């Protein structure tokens, strides 16, 4: 689940690029170039999101029932954001589009801005907790009428939401710089990288500092949940490998943005991409490993979900373990498809041609 989540956050560069459709391009042709550069990758993000949800259902059905069934408004809005993205890429340039390109561009803007932000807020509840309780036969009772939207009232949730949003914008800018062969658009993207990376660092550092200083929720061998001061700091220092991965991830993100801003390199995405994956992977390890509740309940502490009490049956987990052996083949396919779709950079000449365009 942590691997899927980390790749999903990286692939949100598509959403990050979409969030700047009305502010980054200088003219309609540049906008078309951006849409087509991102359009060649949007299905990777969409597929990873669907796989993430499906894998959560198979691996941790109690979490799926609790969060997707209880906090359904926040997940419904997220899913709606991705539905209008799929519709937009399909029909934006279709003959007979009665709504006009601008309507679908607005849909892409909504998906690009609201999607990453709400995903970050939802993941924030893995650390801050949600308002639910479990009854007999694990019947879920959600104790807030806002059905998940109450997470927007938490400062730490908001900070992670904005951190994910601005990270997706940074990765989106670096992807555009790498794949679109247009000098004016690249120069504009270089300048925007500094602003968005600065905002990302502000929100990310606030979230990390607040996380390491906050209380967490641990459980013992009997499954009893208790609050523990500086739990996530203890997790980070108690798992040296995760600490190393986290430091390497953050360093790679900083290196990629630094190369882009200072040296005007077009290869920054090859640093921030792996860096994003490593940092997000480490955060998910902090949320669930080392006897930690990965989905705490702030209403009924003993209803909090852990890897042990929320996972599927042994048979299901064993079957999924065998399925997981196919992951290298999936990575190989993604690598092949990625290279095939980016073997040629987007140019103005291509956009003025008669080939397929989004």
Distance between the ends: 32 Å
Order of helices and strands: HHHHHHHEEHHEEHHHHHHH
Low-confidence stretches: none
Number of domains: 1
| Mean pLDDT score | 92
Count of helical regions: 16
Strand content: under 5%
Number of strands: 4
Q: Which of globular, elongated, flat, extended, rod-shaped describes the shape?
A: globular
Strand order of the largest sheet: 1-2
Helicity level: 55-70%
- Radius of gyration, taken over Cα atoms and rounded to an integer in Å: 21 Å
Largest sheet, in brief, is: 2 strands, antiparallel
Class from secondary-structure proportions: mainly alpha
Walk me through this protein's architecture.
The protein has 358 residues and is mainly alpha-helical. The chain has one domain (2-351). It is 69% helix and 4% strand. The chain is built from 16 helices and four strands. The strands form two sheets. It has a two-stranded antiparallel ribbon with strand order 1-2. Strands 3-4 form a two-stranded antiparallel sheet. The longest helix has 31 residues, at 183-213. It is globular, with a radius of gyration of 21 Å. The relative contact order is 0.15. The mean pLDDT is 92.
